[in-house]
C-alpha cells in the first residue's frame, strides 16, 4: 500500500487557522483487505466527515461522518438510503482513518477528503424532520454558512444544496445535473441562515416529518482578516474560452 499526501496548508500567520489541522486530501493504492490512511487529523477530539472516490474508474462516491457513525455511509452521486458497513469506512483514530475492502481491497486508486469540525470552518448536524414551515435547526459553525449540503437519509431523495451566491429561494442538487431551482420557497423557507441556525420549509427533501437528515455546513471567511481566512464560498461566470476565468482567492 502506498499513501501520498496531496495537500497541506497553513494560514498566513501559521496560527490557529492552520488548515492542515482541519482538512486533508489523501490518495492511496491498495491490494489488501483494507487501507490505513494517515491524514494527520485527530478524530478523537472532534467530529470529522470523510468523502472518498475511486480515481481510476467510475465507482461511486462514499461519504461518512462520526456524528452518525463512521460505518454509516451515503453516496453523494446516488438516491440510495443510508447504509451500514465496515467495508467502506471502518474506523477513525487520532492520526486518520481506516477503510474496508470497498475502498481498499483492490488494485485501484482512491482519493479521500477529510474535514474536521471547527468553528468558522465546517460543521456536521443531524436532525429529525417535522414538516413544519419555519422550522429552525441549530448549528455550531459560529458564523453564517456559505454553503449547506442537506440529505434525507431515506431511499429516493436528492442532495439539496444552499449556497450564499444564490438567493434563499434557490437550491441546486448535488446528484443532479439540472439548473438551479428558483422560487423554491419550501426548502429554506425563504430565510438566509444565521451564525446559529438554519431554517427549513415543508419540502420532504429537507424536512419530511419523522425522517432523519444530515447537513454539512461550510463557512465562508471572505469578510475575515487575512490571517483568519481558510475557506471561502463564491461563484464565477464562465467565458467559454481555452483559458478560463481567473478566480483570485487572495491566498
Please provide a brief summary of the model.
The protein folds into 2 domains: 2-116, no CATH class; 122-228, no CATH class. It is built from 2 helices and 17 strands.
Protein model, in words:
This protein is mainly beta and 251 residues long. It has two domains: 2-116, no CATH class; 122-228, no CATH class. The chain is 3% helix and 34% strand. It is built from two helices and 17 strands. It has helices spanning 185-188, 204-207, and strands at residues 2-7, 23-29, 35-37, 48-54, 61-65, 72-74, 83-84, 89-92, 97-99, 109-116, 122-128, 135-138, 145-152, 159-163, 172-173, 197-200, 212-219. It has a seven-stranded antiparallel sheet, with no helix packed on it. Strands 11-17-13-14-15 form a five-stranded antiparallel sheet. Strands 3-9-8 form a three-stranded antiparallel sheet, with no helix packed on it. The longest helix has 4 residues, at 185-188. It is globular. The protein starts with a strand and ends in a 32-residue tail after the last strand. Residues 1-16 have low confidence and may be disordered.
Amino acid at each position: 500500500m502506498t499513501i501520498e499526501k496531496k495537500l497541506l496548508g497553513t494560514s498566513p500567520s501559521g496560527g490557529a487557522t492552520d488548515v492542515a489541522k482541519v482538512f486533508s486530501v489523501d490518495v492511496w493504492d491498495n491490494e489488501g483487505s483494507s487501507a490505513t490512511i494517515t491524514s494527520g487529523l485527530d478524530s478523537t477530539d472532534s467530529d470529522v466527515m470523510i468523502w472518498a472516490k475511486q480515481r481510476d474508474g467510475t465507482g461511486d462516491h462514499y461519504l461518512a461522518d462520526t456524528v452518525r457513525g463512521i460505518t454509516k455511509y451515503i453516496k453523494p452521486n446516488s438516491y440510495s438510503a443510508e447504509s451500514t458497513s465496515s467495508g467502506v469506512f471502518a474506523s477513525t483514530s487520532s492520526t486518520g482513518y481506516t477503510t474496508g475492502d470497498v475502498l481498499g481491497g483492490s488494485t485501484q486508486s482512491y482519493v479521500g477528503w477529510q474535514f474536521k469540525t471547527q468553528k468558522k470552518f465546517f460543521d456536521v448536524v443531524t436532525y429529525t424532520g417535522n414538516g413544519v414551515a419555519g422550522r429552525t435547526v441549530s448549528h455550531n459553525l459560529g458564523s453564517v454558512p456559505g454553503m449547506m449540503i442537506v440529505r434525507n437519509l431515506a431511499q429516493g431523495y436528492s442532495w439539496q444544496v444552499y449556497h450564499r451566491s444564490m438567493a434563499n429561494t434557490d437550491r441546486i442538487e448535488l446528484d443532479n445535473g439540472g439548473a438551479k431551482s428558483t422560487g423554491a420557497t419550501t426548502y429554506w423557507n425563504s430565510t438566509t441562515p444565521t451564525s446559529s441556525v438554519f431554517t427549513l420549509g415543508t419540502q420532504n427533501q429537507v424536512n419530511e416529518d419523522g425522517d432523519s437528515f444530515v447537513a454539512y455546513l461550510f463557512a465562508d471567511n471572505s469578510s475575515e482578516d487575512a490571517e483568519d481566512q481558510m475557506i471561502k464560498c463564491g461563484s464565477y461566470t464562465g467565458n467559454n474560452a481555452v483559458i478560463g476565468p481567473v478566480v483570485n482567492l487572495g491566498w
